[in-house]
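To the team - tetrahydrodeoxyuridine complex, inputs and output below.
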Amino acid sequence: MKEVKLEITVYEADGIHELQEADAALLKEATAATKQSYAPYSKFNVGAAVLMENGEIIYGSNQENAAYPSGLCAERVALFYANSHFPNVPVKAIAVNSAVNGKDNDDPVFPCGDCRQVLLECENRFGKPIKVIMGGVKNIKIVKGVKDLLPLSFVLK
Ligand code: THU
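Output:
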């Protein structure tokens, strides 16, 4: 047996001012989407903005439910909407941000495992990498493709 080290690449910024203009704009849209969140149980408001290859931007926010598992994360709300309305249009990028009590969080929000799996499916489906921009007021992390978020991922063979 041998040890194998896997490498992922993550870009980090200290604020939105360090981002490329298009990434900053998408992150701002995600931040705005936190206001549409319905999160009376966790009080953790998440917003997502998906940029499609046709220039369309789709918004999502987390939608919770008294039966907790029935709720859905912002990323999947946005992605499923995007894929159901534009089934033939690849997704270029997704930005995600979070807020508590109307205040944007300093640290980035990272997609949960289920969202990573759904993002990966979307990337594989169109054969194009999806940039993931994860905000943070004071810290932003970016990966250029979902495989950097989910190495050793499950695919049906
Ligand atoms: N949540 C998201 O919407 N996206 C994430 O990336 C992490 C978690 C939501 C799910 C739930 O409504 C709340 O945040 C607390 O977990």
